[in-house]
Amino acid sequence: MKKVSLILALLALSAFLLLTNCTKNKEEYNAYFYTTHSTSEIQLSLFIDDEYYGELPYLNPKPSCSDDTQKAGALYVKLSNGKHKLVAKDKQGVIRSSGILKISNNNLSSSSGKDGRGGQEINHKGQCLVIGMFY
User: For the whole prediction, is pTM greater than 0.70?
Assistant: First the structure.
């Protein structure tokens, strides 16, 4: 009986250790957002997962991960891996650009929103993402 109890205890401990070690690693990315349209035309506000993050600056030339000076003018956001809903709205609340950004440890993908408005262009290097929102 003691042998069976010991085996069951070891199995339970092994299962617990296995399950606790299978958690996904949350990685953080430095994301820099901008718009490819002049802000004198329409000022855009960035929302990520329905949360307001700020005004999108118009940057020309387009910034890249390898140029710290260009990135300094962009809207900086810390993003974790996962699925993120990106939306750029004008001052009247009209959605001008929307999409889904999926970040994983070894993959990055984006798609335009369900309404097909606008999109994103992404420059990626290591933990750096430079994301241009356009319409």
Answer: yes
